[in-house]
C-alpha cells in the first residue's frame, strides 16, 4: 500500500507565488510597481507585510515581468543584427513572445528554488517571513498558468528527495515539507479599455528612439482581441457575477472567486470609467487593498490551506494510481489526453481567426485608412482557411512524434508529461498560426 511522504505540513507556506494575469494593457505592470512602493512605505527597513490576518509575514523576493524579459530578448536580437538596418523595423513577434514566456518560467523556477532553500527548516512561528514571488504575464490559456503550478510541485519533490537522502532518516522525516502556494491575481479589465491604452503606447513601426522605447509593450489589436476571446477564465459558473463566492472587498474591487483551477483566484474587476484610471493614486489604492484587505480576509487563508490539503492528497493518489493502473488503462488515458487537446486546438484556432476577422470588420465599418479593399479582404479569408488546415496538420504530426517518444514508459507521471508536452506543441502551433495571420494582415496594410 502506498503511503504519503511522512514530512508534516508547514504551519505556513514555504513560499508564495503570485501570477499576475490578464490581457495586454490590463494594468498588471502598473499594479506591480504600486505594490512594491506600498511594501516599502509600510516597512522600509525589512520590507515585511502581514499575511493571512497576521498568521505570518511576507517579503517580496522577486518581481518578474514579461515586458522586461521581452525587452531584454529583443535587445539581444537587435545586437545580433545590423543596428542601422534594424532601425524602424521593430515589430511585435509571437515567436519572440514565446521565447520570453519560456525564459520567464525559467527565472521563476530559479527564484522559487532559492526561496524554499532558506525556509523549509526555518522559523515555524507567526514571526516567520514567507518569501513572495510575483510573476506578470498574460497567461490567457489555463495551460500557461498550470505550467507554473507544476513547477511548484516539481520543486517540492526535489526538496523532499533532498531531505530523504540525508544520512539521518529521523531528522529528514521530522523536517517540514516544502509547500509553495500559488495565487492568481487576474486583472479583468474591459477589452475596449485595454485597446485604448494599447493605442496610447503607439505602434513601434511609426516612431524611433524614445518613442520606440515607450512603445515596446505595444501589441497589435487583433492579438489583444484574440487573447481576450481565448482567455480561459475557469470560473465555476458561466456567469461569475452571480456566484456567491464573489465576495467583494470593501475597497477597490478585489474579489476572491470560485474557480475550477487548483489554486486560489483573486480577480480585480472594474467597469466603465473606473477601469480606465491608471493614475498612481488609483493604482496605489489597488495595491493597498490587495495587501491590507484581500490577503487578510478569511478566504485567503482558507484558499491557502485548501491548496495545501489538495497537494498532500494528490501526492498520495499518484502513488496509488501507479500501483493500480495496468497498461491498458495507461494507454487509454494517454489517448484521451491527445483527443482532448486536438479538440482544444481547433477551438483556439477558430478563436484567433474570429478575432482577426472582427478587427478587419471594425476597420471596414469605421472607414479607417487601414481598411482593406473587398478583394484583398476576400483573399485574406481564403488564406486563413489554408493556414488553419496547415496548422492542424502540423499539430497532428508533432503529436505522433511525441507519442512515439513517450511510448516506452507510461505511468501517471509520464501521462502528466504527455499533457505538458502537448501544451507546449499546442501553444507553439497557435502562436505560429498567429504569426502567419499577422504577416498576412500586414500585407493588407
TrEMBL record:
InterPro entries: P-loop_NTPase, Ser-tRNA(Sec)_kinase. One of its GO terms (molecular function) is tRNA binding. It comes from the Eukaryota. This is L-seryl-tRNA(Sec) kinase.
